[in-house]
Specification:
heterodimer; A: 600 residues; Ubiquitin-like (UB roll); Alpha-Beta Plaits; Rossmann fold; 16 helices; 17% strand; disordered C terminus; B: alpha+beta; Glutaredoxin; 4-stranded mixed β-sheet; 9 helices; 8% strand; globular
Chain lengths: 600, 218
Amino acid sequence: MDTVTLTIDGRPITVQKGKTVLQAALEAGISVPYYCYHPGISIDGSCRVCVVKIEKMPKLQTSCSTTCTDGMVVMTRDPEVVEARAGVFEFLLVNHPLDCPVCDKGGECPLQDFSYTFGPAESRMDFPRRVFDGEGVKADVDFGPTLMLNRNRCILCTRCVRFMKEIDADAQINIVDRGYGSEIATFQEQGVHTLISGNLMDVCPVGAITTRDYRFKSRPWDNPGVVDTICTLCSKGCNTSAWLKAKPEWARGSRLIRMTPRFNPDVNNYWMCDIGRFDYHWVEGETRLRRPMMRRGTALEPAAWHDVEPRLRDRIQEVVTADPTAVRFLVSAHASNEELFVVKQLVEGLLGADGIKAVSMTWTRSEKPQPAGTKFKVPATDAPNVNGARDLGYDVGQGNDGLPDLTALRTAVEGGRVKAVYVIDPGPQGSIGDVSWLIEARRNGTLPLLIVQGVVTTPLTDAADFVLPGAAYVEKDALYTNDQGRVQAASSAIAPPGEALEDWQILVNVARALGLTLPYTSSSDVRRALAAAMPGGPYADADKIGFAQPLPASSWLQASNPSERWKWDFFFQDLPPVKGHSVQTEGSAQALFIPLKPVG
Amino acid sequence: MSFHPRMEYAPAKFHKSERTLAEQGGDFKYTPENQAKFDENVTHYPPEQRKSAILFALYLAQGQQGYLTAAAMQHVAQQIGCTAAEVEDVVTYYTMFYRTPVGKYVINVCRTLSCALLGAERVTEELSAALGIKPGETDPTGTFTLVEVECLGACDRAPVVMVNDEWHERLAPEQSAKLIADIRTKGAAAFTGCHLNKEAQQGAGARGTGDRGKGDRT
């Protein structure tokens, strides 16, 4: 690897050739403010706050657009830099409304943080601020189906413009007009229509672009829990963070308050799609299954686990004793590796060594409408673990490239050869595909026994004889194998609702009721057995994969904006990131701050 | 599931942007002649930089229709292979693209330093009085549009106005009303034109600080 060595603030720093001064400084833990720079998109150099002094250069340089060279001597705390930077901040705040107390970005806003740290103490501007669409909440205008735009807050860094041009490959956002009248806009105010629009909220360094989903719902300091997890709504497996809002126990509404992407250069880079970002409401929605249910006569009635299990055992054993081939399992590819592993042991114990043939995997596919050149392609397969099922020996046909083939199961069910179907469906509604034939078979009596282990109320659960409430992907520690074959950990952020249990636990309980011994008391027990059963492969270390615990967000607020999180994950920062604390006046040989004085 | 799950706030509840939009206009398509001109001009640029033809493409559209509607911008976007937003970006950036109908004569009065010092403001006032319209407006007959613009690049002959594509230099404020009357009677012949072009036509190598040989180049 070619490297260059330069000096920043008197410290010799060696970085990879081609890196910019700003990147070198950040990697060395030297705080330099920036707005237009974002590591995931191209360099623009329009915000000017990253100015530094470089020896032998005639003027101050923007560090984000200056490439490191050998022997370069850079100063980020020189009085000249401090004054120039403060001047730039003063200009950035000329028109920026000081509505931080009501702004959704307040508390995690780079403009706020950097202004406190590097900006002047007060503004000398006393004329009225430029206003685009009205003052206050009237300035929030429609910006497409997911977003809102407040032009008064915009500092024209053009990150959103470049994001749309480069990542989405459909330049829907542009700057209209010029000079003082410049504003961010879409053609004829049509708004942003893209599958990855939520990322615009992340890239926006101010509160100009906000998502409708998170608007006015919570503030950063109200979200004391943040859990690193992964999204399981498609086969990509984007690394995400689930944010939890603090609530008293009696408070209504969801605790899960938003999903944000987490940097992983091998999977999702800095981004995630709108499906994963916004489609989490079902997890704590009204349709969630909270109690086990059992059919008594025609009605499906809530029951206790200890009542359900013996009845379930009796019904299953009745079928198995008569004809072991009449029991079938229909498993959604939303099931995690742990669950699939337990299912495998359950069917092998119940039906014999090739019991796995009684299991049909199912998932859905939908081609996502995205521009041809997009750099963030959302896969067509809407299930996280097709590859995991393949690795564990289940028949998945063409895997992620194709649809599951359920014709054999369907023919057998409709022909009356199947007497019991056990459905395991921990995914959102519809993720199991078209099961109307199964519902119909149960309704007309062709299928005498239908057991559904699921998370939401669906027509399928309505038709079932037994409904076993399981856990959604943010409610259990589980492993999923994405379309690249990476085994990734989804951590439990919240507890399953009501009497719902984690799916591996339900399966172990059912197995125990059926007289099988599966010696697991936790999901990590299952992973340990999984690792032992599949040595050498990607699952060999399944028991060593770490799961995130809810982390106090206070430690994250240091990183301010969630999209800035990568710095804290990947670089060490030596400056105490305390808000309102001037790093310019301490820890530096050039501890000199020149306050700007009012004119006249 | 739709790709954009149900959002709690309905669009109807939001405030709408107050930005001035171009009118949508009827279907727009280049005439065959303009299409031929465009196809020829596009060959001046490498295929991957087809977007470079945007100004030419917009001038063609504006020449055909008099001003640019949203439909025209969409047509240009489709022709040069970019998004309509990128075209709108360019259209709104330049003062010489019009998003509303303009008069037959668009009078652009320079108001930048040299012209301002030599009375451009009074020129505007006089023109405004003679036409009965304010800067930025078009008279009811649709003949004149008065616009204030930034530097027109003829500072040595200030104050300068540009009428459509022609210059009229050294326009003293008191001559302004006469210029309007002359345009009404003589049309384009009323303008003094750009001295640089004239000198070039006369073959006279220009002298003096202001002109420094520029005449030779044109």
